[in-house]
Amino acid sequence: MTSSADHKTHTLSCRMRPEPAALERLCQVARIRGFRIEEMQVRTDADGLAIDMVLSGQRSIDTLRRQIEKLHTVCSLRGPEQALTGVRQSA
Amino acid sequence: MNAAQHILDALQRHQIDTVFGYPGGCIMPLYDALVAEDVGVEHVLCRHEQACALAADGYARASGRTGVCMATSGPGATNLITGVANAHRDSIPMLVITGQVPSGLIGTDAFQETDVLGMTLGIVKHSYLVTEAPEIPAILEEALQLAGSGRPGPVWIDIPKDILLTDIGEPKAPAPTTATPLPDPTAEIDEALAMLREANMPLLYSGGGVSLAHAESAFRRFAKASRLPNVVTLKGIGNPGYDNADQMGMLGLHGSKAANMAVDTCDLLLVVGARLDDRATGAVATFAPNAKVIHIDTDAAELGKLRATDLAIRGELRDILDSMADALIRQPLTIENWRQQCATWRKTQGFQTAINEDPHAPISGPEFMRQLTDIAPRDAIVACDVGQHQMWVAQYCRFDHPRNHLSSGGLGTMGFGLPAAIGAQFAFPDRPVINVTGDGSFMMNAQELATIRRHKLPIKLIIMDNQCLGMVRQQQELFYENRESQIDLDDNPDFLALARAFDIPTLAIQRTDQVRRGIQTILAYDGPMLLHVRIDRSENVWPIVKPGASNRDMLDESQRPTSTSAKNKESAA
Ligand SMILES: Cc1ncc(C[n+]2csc(CCOP(=O)(O)OP(=O)(O)O)c2C)c(N)n1
């Protein structure tokens, strides 16, 4: 990735069915599509997996959203609430 | 009934009559189930798992039905990967079934254990590692539904051996799965029509999504009603059919100048079932610089991915194109000047081959393809490999239907052609199937001659032998100052002797005056036959766009830096 100046951070909240590779799928889509996972929180409850993520990258978050939504194990996706523009919070 | 028997039962219920596979330890229970007399599924033993996957791909590509392949754990599964990636990149519906080591041994580095689920996540539409035997019927149902619906793709089911052996009772009618309906695009359709009417130079750009969405007839109806000049991607070849008078051919890297000029000039680009891939667009920043873009696709993630759209329409291609055609039949577009302009470009800047009057001249790739397409019947299926020969097929062969042209687009997999032809021949036993390959690509799955022989498949094999990895040689010539590196194949095996070892008769040609009879002979032969075509090592594919450049800056043969062969000049300009 190039200079951090044009990176934006975004938060996404995602619910997934609790199948074995669910998290790997999610992380892989984010990585391949040009985003870096800055923070990630996972809880398991009666409805499956609840994941909150902070992502950073230069590409369109809307496109990433649609790419994540294509995962069969994703039940719902919320966000992004754009956290910070211009600079990345963490290195 | 054990889980393995349930799998065969589900395949039959879904009218899947052919599977391509290769047995081994962990999938033996499924092979044991195949032995039963009442099994209505034909298993085709290819000679390499990669070929199993590519044959399943060819079967699906040619027929529009889901292709199925199966293999054992470990090396069987890893050998499948290239073929499955090929299907994934071209959105081909496929079901992949692999055996896995018994549940208790997963994660212990057991014999022939690999993390198939983990290593294939990026090349599947979805995948499963089955942990509970009773879930098998529901998983199969869902997998088949997913593979063939929406934007199709491969779905992989990895099944531990103990689960295949578990008795799960008699089959029950599975709960029907329903796809979520797509949003109603009526408002967007009206907007698209308004934009079309407003445009002076609208252009239709279509890709592989048209046939994947089974929207071929609707597309033709729309193309005819709109009379829009149109360009196609590699996978969209055949969309407009033989008779569409407004087609400009393939755009992009090796597209026609006519097509690229039309894109460069148009003021509205209507993209249908295409993903604006870099081979088609060239430098995307300067692609269609004057155009508003309307993008129609089933997959929301493609809309606006590489080029901002002025209007994105997500929905069923068939319905959208049909209602747009209805509206344009009621009130046609008035774009006569633009159509004339495109027709002129097509005449002066389209693909043309120069007929070489010298009967002893070496055979030119483009001229060979032109004759092949003239002689071959209209319903012939041509499966290509990857390289220069693939581009000559795309440029000079005409196709009446996109499913008649099998070409590895997204992945560009050398070795695709022969197994894909096998798959297509199983899907259509009575249609002519031709594999056009290169001397490099052919050797990547040459073992499949054994499958042709075993099943007496009447596939015609055409090797365009330039004694080198031609496409790589061409790029080294043009973009690496002619420094040739590892492209020489002048010690190729005797391809004729190789074919004869599999009881496949052969014919070899090397002069222009032998082309016609050569093609006629193999097509008339009742059975498989190999035509060996010796061509000039120095022949290039023209025109070409330099990597990273704009499509408008296409190079043609007149710009060749080291003009070595002037003899075969074709005016691709
Ligand atoms: C599996 C694979 N390996 C490498 C390549 C890179 N590649 C693209 S075209 C080509 C040369 C193909 O040679 P040949 O089949 O003889 O066809 P030609 O270009 O000479 O017509 C190569 C090596 C590829 N596309 N696929």
Which keywords apply here?
heterodimer; A: 91 residues; alpha+beta; Alpha-Beta Plaits; 4-stranded antiparallel beta sheet; 2 helices; 4 strands; globular; disordered C terminus; B: 573 residues; alpha/beta; Rossmann fold; 3 domains; 6-stranded parallel beta sheet; binds thiamine diphosphate
Care to describe what's here?
The complex is a heterodimer of chains A (91) and B (573). Chain A has 91 residues and is an alpha+beta fold. Chain A has one domain: Alpha-Beta Plaits (2-Layer Sandwich), CATH 3.30.70. In chain A, a hairpin with a 2-residue loop joins strand 2 and strand 3. The longest helix of chain A has 11 residues. The longest helix of chain B is centred in the N-terminal third of the chain and has 15 residues. Chain B has three domains: 162 residues, Rossmann fold; 164 residues, Rossmann fold (3-Layer(aba) Sandwich); 208 residues, Rossmann fold, CATH 3.40.50. With 573 residues, chain B is of the alpha/beta class. The N and C termini of chain B lie far apart (64 Å). In chain B, strand 13, helix 16 and strand 14 form a beta-alpha-beta unit. A six-stranded parallel sheet of chain B has the order 2-1-3-4-6-5, sandwiched between helices. A six-stranded parallel sheet of chain B has the order 9-8-7-10-11-12, with helices on both faces. In chain B, strands 14-13-15-16-18-17 form a six-stranded parallel sheet, sandwiched between helices. Chains A and B meet through helix 1 and helix 2 of A and strand 5 of B. The site of thiamine diphosphate has 19 residues of chain B, from helix 16, helix 18 and helix 20. Chain B: Keywords: Amino-acid biosynthesis, Branched-chain amino acid biosynthesis, Magnesium, Metal-binding, Thiamine pyrophosphate, Transferase. Chain B: This is Acetolactate synthase. Chain B: Its cofactor is Mg(2+); thiamine diphosphate. Chain B: It catalyses: 2 pyruvate + H(+) = (2S)-2-acetolactate + CO2. Chain B: Belongs to the TPP enzyme family.
